[in-house]
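Task: sequence design from structure.
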């Protein structure tokens, strides 16, 4: 038998076995057993996932709580006898304090229940007494979106495990920096309403932003912020330019004649349809609407160009720093090159002092 015939018979045999497996109709008992086993596997897998997540967050809590932590805050002068000086100043502590005051003030209002000061404080803050409750709180906070969390939640964690709360706060700040550097912060501000946050709108904005970044290669947060301003003003210019074309070259929407007649009769028979006042707000004419769109487009064009000049000047006039130079060639206005080099005496003096 040739090799070709063997390969053909092997392929036919494998195809028949595969077809038999696919065409196999399980009995009622087999299907019931399969459903039961699948359900048990799913429950077992869900329990395994939950236990694995619990173990991960418990270990994270222990690691964060075991090691000493120093907040990376800027140095701020505070009174020596203040509460911040006693407990240690941090941006998290001040934010938690302000959030607690706002929550207590809201609970004292009619919208918050008109509670007393003592009851409002009890409602605003829940003190945890053991590590298991604190771990559950950290696990809940880690699973929720950051925009849905409050400083009062972090304050409850900070009361029992301040190191864990401080590290969670640092993690949240790093997430905020990542959102800024990725462009999603500016994109969400450019499209603030929910129906505007469509995939294509966000993708267009980020595509324009990435194109600017690829050309300019920003070197820090300030240049990234200017790139965001460029992209935002560019999109606003595009919008108002579109409005200019639409208002000048397309037909506007008009009120239906029957609706105009209904308004006229309403004014005639119901004199109290207008509230008190001494003047009527003017309606915008077609010419004024077109002129307004042109002005807005020109405004954002000037914002774009001004931001671009600022970005250019930031690099043009940035100071030049030379670290540990041994020889520097400097050309003055006349074009004559000056050689600046350290003498042997200066080098020896530096070695002696060091």
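Answer:
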């Amino acid at each position: 038998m040739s090799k070709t015939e063997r390969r053909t018979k092997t392929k036919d045999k494998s195809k028949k076995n595969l077809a038999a497996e696919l065409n196999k109709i399980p009995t009622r008992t087999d299907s019931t057993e399969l459903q039961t086993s699948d359900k048990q596997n799913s429950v077992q897998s869900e329990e395994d996932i939950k236990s694995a997540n619990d173990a991960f967050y418990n270990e994270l809590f222990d690691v964060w709580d075991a090691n000493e932590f120093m907040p990376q805050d800027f140095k701020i002068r505070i009174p020596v006898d203040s509460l911040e000086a006693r407990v240690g100043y941090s941006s998290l502590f001040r934010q938690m304090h302000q959030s607690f005051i706002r929550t207590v003030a809201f609970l004292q209002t009619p919208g918050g229940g008109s509670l007393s000061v003592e009851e409002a404080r009890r409602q605003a803050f829940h003190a945890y007494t053991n590590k298991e409750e604190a771990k559950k709180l950290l696990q809940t906070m880690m699973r929720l979106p950051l925009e849905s969390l409050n400083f009062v939640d972090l304050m409850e964690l900070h009361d029992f495990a301040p190191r864990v709360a401080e590290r969670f706060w640092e993690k949240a700040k790093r997430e905020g920096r990542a959102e800024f550097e990725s462009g999603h912060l500016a994109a969400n501000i450019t499209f603030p309403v929910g129906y505007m946050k469509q995939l294509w709108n966000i993708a267009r904005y980020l595509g324009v932003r990435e194109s600017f970044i690829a050309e300019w290669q920003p070197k820090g947060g300030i240049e990234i912020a200017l790139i965001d301003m460029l992209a935002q003003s560019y999109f606003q210019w595009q919008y108002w330019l579109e409005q200019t074309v639409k208002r000048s070259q397309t037909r506007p929407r008009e009120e239906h004649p029957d609706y105009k007649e209904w308004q006229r009769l309403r004014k005639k028979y119901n004199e109290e349809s207008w509230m008190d006042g001494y003047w009527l707000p003017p309606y915008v004419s077609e010419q004024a609407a077109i002129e307004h769109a042109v002005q807005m487009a020109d405004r954002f064009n000037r914002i774009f160009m001004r931001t671009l000049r600022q970005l250019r000047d930031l690099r043009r006039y940035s100071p030049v720093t030379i670290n540990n130079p041994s020889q520097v060639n400097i050309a003055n206005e006349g074009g004559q090159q000056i050689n600046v080099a350290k003498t042997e005496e200066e080098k020896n003096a530096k070695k002696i002092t060091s």
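The two ends are 88 Å apart (CA to CA).
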